[in-house]
Amino acid sequence: MRVLVVEDEAALRQGVVAALAAAGAQVQEAADGVVGHYLASEYPFDVAVIDLGLPGLPGLELIRRLRAAGSRLPILILTARARWQEKVEGLESGADDYLAKPFEMPELLARVRALWRRAAGAAGTVVVAGAYRIDLDAQQVSCAGNPVALTAFEFRLLEYLARNRERVVSRRELTDYLYPLDEDRDSNVLEVLIGRLRRKLDPAGCHQPVLTVRGRGYRFAPVEGG
């Protein structure tokens, strides 16, 4: 799961980032609305946590611009407990959920996971595609009942392809999803990961689900029924 946190209060932002990272999420942070809008517009995220009282570009305007541009990114807004009007305005602007300050980190994590699962099209924590069963919380994969042992990177790769299985995912999009924005990226690493993932999926007794679409990217296309 990749999460964008846009919060100008440094201590709170660092606490949220640390809690999400400890829960296994890959987190990118921004301290103002302008940077947050750029990151949300240019890079793929699963969920965004956005404070409404942001410098540069207020949270409400950030959300409005994202929705006006067609973004379907699940958004959890952070708002002051006394400002109930902000909750209403945030939801009407296109946010999916809200959390009033002060809040407990376990509640924030639960709400972020719920938005992630909803966007994944899963009522619970499991995505089922063909004979594949992908447990998002436990980070476990099985095919036709056979467990498939994957590294954290391999799981993130398969999970993203599976959740976007109705379309072709470009190499750039996958690379942006897998790696922090400030990390050096080797163009050959993705091919190595794809190859390793395919080798691990083959012995599971299922048809190879990770297809290359020449010149466009990759697609997760499991055969229904195995």
Topology:
Blueprint (H helix, E strand, L loop, with lengths): L1 E5 L3 H13 L3 E5 L2 H10 L4 E5 L7 H10 L6 E6 L3 H10 L3 E5 L3 H15 L6 E4 L2 E4 L4 E4 L2 E3 L3 H12 L7 H8 L8 H15 L8 E4 L3 E4 L6
Parallel strand pairs: 1-2, 1-3, 3-4, 4-5
Antiparallel strand pairs: 6-7, 7-8, 8-9, 10-11
Helix pairs in contact: 1-5, 2-3, 6-8
Q: Give the CA-based shape.
A: elongated
Top CATH class of the largest domain: Alpha Beta
SS content category: alpha/beta
CATH homology superfamily name of the largest domain: Response regulator
The CATH topology of the largest domain turns out to be Rossmann fold
Main beta-sheet strand count, sense and barrel state: 5 strands, parallel
Order of helices and strands: EHEHEHEHEHEEEEHHHEE
CATH architecture term of the largest domain? 3-Layer(aba) Sandwich
State mean pLDDT (0 to 100 scale): 85
Number of helices: 8
How would you explain this protein's 3D organization?
This protein has 226 residues and is of the alpha/beta class. It folds into 2 domains: 2-119, Response regulator (Rossmann fold), CATH 3.40.50; 126-220, Orthogonal Bundle (Arc Repressor Mutant, subunit A), CATH 1.10.10.10. Helix content is 41%, strand content 22%. It has helices spanning 10-22, 33-42, 59-68, 84-93, 105-119, 152-163, 171-178, 187-201; strands at residues 2-6, 26-30, 47-51, 75-80, 97-101, 126-129, 132-135, 140-143, 146-148, 210-213, 217-220. The strands form 3 sheets. The protein has a 5-stranded parallel β-sheet, with helices on both faces. A 4-stranded antiparallel β-sheet has the order 6-7-8-9, with helices on one face. α1 crosses α5 (105-119) and α2 (33-42) runs parallel beside α3 (59-68). The chain is elongated and about 55 Å long. Pfam families: Response_reg (PF00072), Trans_reg_C (PF00486). The modification 4-aspartylphosphate is found at residue 51. Residues 123-222 bind DNA. Residues 123-222 form the OmpR/PhoB-type domain. One of its GO terms (molecular function) is phosphorelay response regulator activity.
